[in-house]
Every structure is written in structure tokens, then in C-alpha cells.
């Protein structure tokens, strides 16, 4: 492994910091010793580790407030131009809904699973313009997370999360790390933007990727049916412009769907019913936030600011519906 | 215990015989012989099982029928999604009574229609297909009105549907009767004013083994091919045996041995049926 390094034993990683001569630089240790959590444990101990971790994290998720630091932070009122946090949710599937006029729409169900605020970075710490809240969703096992990530979760007093994202937030909407976030943060009738990684399609040709028309199947076409054809003007630029649409990897990129209406919120199971389709496969983790579109921003609805706290706002109905939505317990429609 | 009982028996017998010698007729002897011959104790016959008549449940609820749209498809979806969808389906079923029916039954559906006079629209037809799962489940009704074939696809859980009546409950040899489009018109005509045929809930649903005559080819689909698996067409009148053999070229005999395509829903069905019946009875 370290054939080039003849003088030193394998403490190269430490010594590299002190000695800078060029012939030592090649002696970089590429394979770091990694052990998985159960390599040196007996089977009983492995079981115990799994169970104890799961119990502790369940307890942490259920706790409303971070036990380390007791008081929540100061709550401010909503002002024009303030932005509040978003949520991290899991895409469950799709279902039809009907309005009171009898129109049929499709809806995606997003479940907010174990969403917690993890960190707060003030304006100065982040980029000098806006404060930021780091939010995580969907608990995951700690055994495959690195130490740095685990430190961050430990500081917040929160189990390790599958997805950790940042939300740009105005200063009056700042929330204390460790607070759980629920689906009732959004109300029916509101509009949201949903961001997720689209389904990966792998290396795809230009017809599927960009919708090119290709070439005809017959009439003498020699081995050319799905090719891009010409790639640019010709002799004048004598080059192919940057950004030319060519075959390549398609999908598996972050895509945002804007202006999706929320039809229904289930507060018991934390499920949001969002209009239309959403990028990502089933059971993928997504990021939801209030719309950026100016024509769909709702000041009339007054959603909970900075977020929905169960202790303060107490009992909401199990299902919150939009005004136009047909509820299944109502009698059948009679259109007049 | 048995031995002394036997001994006692014999003593009793001999005493009885001594007491009344004139009663020693054949009958007595035969019975005594019959009794003395088997030496082992008499076999224990358990009492007959009591027949339980459950009067708390209605006869309708006792009928073990689970509508096919409750069975979730074999997908990578979280089962929780089917749970919440089922809750909505049950809520709708408590308001609108969706009866049991199969492909081949004759139904009448009353629907709210903004374009109809009186805003109500009643259509009677034979159900040719039941598709979809969950809240988006559909069924297609076919009828011939004024020499024009009409098919309407209704959604079972749509709020515009006000009533679903089963005029005749029966099954056919297939689950999918799309071939009625290529059959003679008499097989798809249903009288819009027909009276409902009474059906008692304790009986099994009758299977109508009718085989349908077809119009001359070409048909909309090649129904003779094994992938459609159509039992209810009279192929002997429509096609020659050579053509039937030629159609068998598209057979896929390996499909029945493909284990990856197996989807055993028996346990799921039981579980969902008990859940649905409990929720409906509340």
C-alpha cells in the first residue's frame, strides 16, 4: 500500500501535517480504518444496542421540549415580509379528491415524520443576509452516520435524521433547536412549494431527456433514428455552444414544484394532502415551504407563526378541510 | 373401575335371568348376547356441536364479501397509505350504500349531472369491468340505447353518485366482459325499466354460463388469444379449429410457474375484511 514511502511507518497521516517536502506528499493514506458498529460486539450486545438506541430516540421524539435547555425562545408576531420555517416530509402516494361542485382533482399525500429543528444560524454566521434554521426529518439509525453529524444531533437533543435541510428564515420567525414541527404548521387553502430529488433515469438519450423529435424510421435513414442531428450553426462560431442539449444523466436532481394548494391536513397522523403531483418516488423525503409566488401568498389565512405548538394551540380537529373540498361523511352532492 | 362395573353387569344379568325365566325370549337373549360380546368399554361419542346463530350481526354483514378495490396492489407503497385511504372509503360507504356486484350483473346508477334535466341522470346497464384500487375504483356499465351502444365509466366513490341499485346479481364466466362490444347486440341490451330480480343474501351468487355469439371478424381485440383467457365466447361458431390453434402460438405456458408473479392475497383479504366489517358496524 505505502510502497513509495520507505522511511516511515504508517503514521503518515499525522506526520504529513509537520513535514511538507514534495516526495512525502504521495504517501497519503487512502484507506482509513473503518469498523461498523457491530464488528466487535456479540449478538446479544448488538440486539441491545439497537433496542436501546430505538427507545431513546422514540423518547426524544415524543418530548415536546429539549430537556437540556428549558425555556422556549421568544415568539414574535407576523409582519409583512417575514418568512417562516418549512417542513421535511415523506411522500406516501396519491389519491383522488372531489370538490363540492363535483370536480375531481388528484392529490399527493405527504406525511411529516419526526420533523425537528436542529440548529439556528444567525445572519452573521450564515451569509450576512438572512438567518437560517436547519431542520431534519424522518429518524434513521445512528450506526451509519459520521461522528460530526452525530455531534450536531446530540447538541440539539434529537435522534439522527435521514434528511437535513436549511430554510432561510426572517429574524422574527426563529425557533429553538429541538422543537418538533407538525403538519398543522400548514393550513388548508394555503399554497406551498415542494422540493425533492426527481426519479433518476440514468444515462438517457436526447429524445427522452429533452424531447427532441429524432429522425424518421424509414425512407432511407441509415442508422439514425434517435440521434440529436445538427449541433450548431456552422463555420461562423466554429464551435458548439456551452449548454448544448446532449445525452447524459437524467433525473436524480433537485426539482421544485411551485404553487401547490393544500386541500386537507390530518393532524392526528400529520398528513398533508397537496394538489397535483410532486417530484420524487414513493417514500422519498421532501422539503416543503410556503410559496414564493406573489399571487398565491396567503395573508388572509394567518397560518401559525413561527410554527404550530401543540401545548399552546391545543386541540385542533383530527381533519382540517379546505372550504371547497367534499368531505366523505357529507351526503352525496345534488347539483342545482 | 370398568372391570368391577362389568362384573356387576354380569351379576345383574344373571340375577335378572334367574328372576324371570319365562321372559327368556329371543329378543332378550339377543340383547344380552349383544351386550356380553364386546369386551372393550363403549366408545365415547361427544355431544353434537351447538349451532351458533349470531343475532347481533345482520344477514348482510355475515356475507363474506370484500369489494375488490380494498385489496391493495403489490407495490412498494407504505401500507399506512392504504390504511388512511380505507378510512375514507369506509366513511363514504356509510353514507352511500355500495352493494355487492360482479362483472355481468345489471346495475342502475343515479347520478347528479349539471347538464341533465332535473339535474339527475339514471343509467341502467350490464357491468363489463371493475377496475382501479382504493378511492379511484371504477366500474363500466354498458347498454344499447336507440341502436347505439353506450358505455359509462363510473367512479364508485364519486360524490355525484346518489344511488347504486343491483337489478340482477349474477356472475359470468369471465371477470372482464369487454368482448360484448364485438358480440351481437342482443347480449348487451338491458331494459331500462326492468324490475329488480329478488336475491336472498344467504345464497351463493349464481354463475351464468352463457356463451356469447360474436359478430364476424375483425374484432376490436383478438379475443381468441390466450392472454385474454375468455371463456364466455362461442369460438366454434366464429373461428375454425386451425385459427384457434394458430392463436395458441401466443400462449405463455411458463406464466403459471413464474413464482415472482405470485401474489397471494388470502391473509390480507381476511385481515382487511374483518377491519372493514368492524368499522362498518360501528
UniProtKB/TrEMBL annotation, chain A:
GO CC terms, sorted: mitochondrial inner membrane; mitochondrial large ribosomal subunit
Gene3D superfamilies: Translation factors
Lineage: superkingdom: Eukaryota
Keywords: Mitochondrion, Ribonucleoprotein, Ribosomal protein, Transit peptide
InterPro entries reported for this sequence: Ribosomal_uL3, Ribosomal_uL3_bac/org-type, Ribosomal_uL3_CS, Transl_B-barrel_sf
Coiled-coil annotated spans: none
GO molecular function terms listed in the Swiss-Prot or TrEMBL record: structural constituent of ribosome
Main location: mitochondrion
SUPFAM superfamilies in the cross-refs: Translation proteins
GO terms for biological process, alphabetical: translation
Region (Disordered): 214-239
Pfam assignment, any one: Ribosomal_L3
Subcellular location: Mitochondrion
Family: Belongs to the universal ribosomal protein uL3 family.
NCBIfam families xrefs: L3_bact
Name of the featured protein: Large ribosomal subunit protein uL3m
Organism: Cyclopterus lumpus (Lumpsucker)
Organism placement in taxonomy: Eukaryota, Metazoa, Chordata, Craniata, Vertebrata
From TrEMBL, chain B:
Range of residues in the leader sequence: none
GO biological process: translation
UniProt entry tagged with the keyword Mitochondrion: yes
The entry's keywords: Mitochondrion, Ribonucleoprotein, Ribosomal protein, Transit peptide
Record keyword Glycoprotein present: no
Pfam families documented for this protein: Ribosomal_L19
GO cellular component, one term: mitochondrial large ribosomal subunit
Subcellular location: Mitochondrion
GO molecular function, one term: structural constituent of ribosome
Alphabetical list of InterPro entries matching this protein: Ribosomal_bL19, Ribosomal_bL19_sf, Translation_prot_SH3-like_sf
Family to which this protein belongs: Belongs to the bacterial ribosomal protein bL19 family.
Protein name: Large ribosomal subunit protein bL19m
Encoding gene (name): mrpl19
Amino acid at each position: 500500500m505505502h510502497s513509495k514511502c520507505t522511511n516511515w511507518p504508517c503514521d503518515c497521516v499525522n506526520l504529513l501535517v509537520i513535514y511538507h517536502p514534495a516526495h512525502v506528499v504521495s504517501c497519503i493514506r487512502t484507506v482509513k480504518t473503518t469498523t461498523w458498529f457491530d464488528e466487535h460486539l456479540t449478538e446479544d450486545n448488538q440486539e441491545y444496542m439497537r433496542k436501546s438506541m430505538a427507545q431513546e430516540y422514540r423518547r426524544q421524539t415524543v418530548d415536546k421540549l429539549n430537556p437540556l435547555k428549558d425555556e422556549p425562545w421568544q415568539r414574535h408576531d407576523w409582519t409583512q415580509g417575514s418568512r417562516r420555517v418549512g417542513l421535511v416530509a415523506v411522500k406516501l402516494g396519491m389519491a383522488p379528491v372531489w370538490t363540492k361542485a363535483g370536480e375531481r382533482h388528484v392529490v399527493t399525500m405527504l406525511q411529516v415524520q419526526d420533523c425537528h429543528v436542529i440548529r439556528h444560524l444567525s445572519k452573521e454566521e450564515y451569509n450576512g443576509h438572512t438567518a437560517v434554521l436547519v431542520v431534519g426529518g424522518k429518524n434513521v439509525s445512528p450506526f451509519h452516520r459520521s461522528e460530526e453529524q452525530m455531534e450536531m444531533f446530540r447538541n440539539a437533543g434529537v435522534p439522527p435524521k435521514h434528511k437535513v435541510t436549511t430554510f432561510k428564515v426572517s429574524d422574527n420567525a426563529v425557533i429553538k433547536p429541538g422543537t418538533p414541527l407538525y403538519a398543522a404548521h400548514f393550513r388548508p387553502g394555503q399554497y406551498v412549494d415542494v422540493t425533492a430529488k426527481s426519479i433518476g433515469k440514468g444515462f438517457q438519450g436526447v429524445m427522452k431527456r429533452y424531447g427532441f423529435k429524432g429522425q424518421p424510421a424509414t425512407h432511407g435513414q441509415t442508422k439514425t433514428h434517435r440521434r440529436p442531428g445538427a449541433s450548431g450553426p456552422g463555420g461562423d462560431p466554429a464551435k458548439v455552444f456551452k449548454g448544448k442539449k446532449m445525452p447524459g444523466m437524467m433525473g436524480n436532481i433537485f426539482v421544485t414544484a411551485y404553487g401547490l394548494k393544500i386541500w386537507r391536513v390530518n393532524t392526528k397522523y400529520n398528513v398533508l394532502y397537496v394538489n397535483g403531483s410532486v417530484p420524487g418516488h414513493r417514500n422519498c423525503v421532501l422539503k416543503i415551504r410556503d410559496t414564493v409566488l406573489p399571487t398565491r401568498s396567503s395573508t388572509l389565512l394567518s397560518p401559525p407563526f413561527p410554527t404550530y405548538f401543540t401545548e399552546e394551540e391545543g386541540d385542533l380537529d383530527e381533519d382540517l378541510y379546505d372550504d371547497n373540498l367534499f368531505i366523505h361523511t357529507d351526503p352525496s352532492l345534488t347539483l342545482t | 373401575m370398568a372391570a368391577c362395573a362389568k362384573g356387576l353387569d354380569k351379576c345383574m344379568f344373571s340375577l335378572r335371568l334367574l328372576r324371570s325365566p319365562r321372559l327368556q325370549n329371543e329378543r332378550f337373549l339377543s340383547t344380552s348376547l349383544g351386550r356380553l360380546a364386546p369386551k372393550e368399554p363403549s366408545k365415547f361419542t361427544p355431544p353434537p356441536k351447538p349451532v351458533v346463530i349470531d343475532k347481533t350481526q345482520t344477514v348482510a354483514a355475515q356475507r363474506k364479501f370484500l369489494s375488490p378495490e380494498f385489496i391493495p396492489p403489490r407495490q412498494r407503497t407504505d401500507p399506512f397509505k392504504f390504511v388512511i385511504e380505507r378510512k375514507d372509503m369506509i366513511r363514504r360507504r356509510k353514507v352511500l350504500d355500495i352493494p355487492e356486484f360482479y362483472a355481468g350483473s345489471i346495475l342502475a346508477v343515479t347520478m347528479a349531472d349539471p347538464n341533465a334535466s332535473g339535474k339527475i341522470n339514471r343509467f341502467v346497464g350490464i357491468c363489463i369491468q371493475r377496475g382501479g384500487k382504493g378511492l379511484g375504483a371504477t366500474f363500466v356499465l354498458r347498454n344499447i340505447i336507440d341502436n347505439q351502444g353506450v358505455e359509462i365509466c363510473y367512479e364508485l366513490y364519486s360524490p355525484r353518485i346518489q344511488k347504486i341499485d343491483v337489478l340482477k346479481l349474477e356472475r359470468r364466466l369471465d371477470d372482464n366482459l369487454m368482448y360484448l362490444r364485438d358480440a351481437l347486440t342482443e347480449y348487451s341490451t338491458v331494459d331500462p325499466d326492468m324490475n329488480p330480480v329478488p336475491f336472498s343474501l344467504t345464497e351463493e351468487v349464481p354463475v351464468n354460463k352463457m356463451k356469447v355469439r360474436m359478430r364476424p371478424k375483425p374484432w376490436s381485440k383478438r379475443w381468441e388469444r390466450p392472454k385474454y383467457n375468455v371463456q364466455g365466447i362461442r369460438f366454434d361458431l366464429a373461428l375454425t379449429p386451425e385459427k384457434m390453434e394458430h392463436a395458441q402460438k401466443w400462449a405463455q405456458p411458463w406464466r403459471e410457474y413464474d413464482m415472482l408473479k405470485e401474489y397471494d392475497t388470502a391473509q390480507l383479504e381476511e385481515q382487511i375484511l374483518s377491519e372493514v366489517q368492524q368499522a362498518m358496524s360501528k
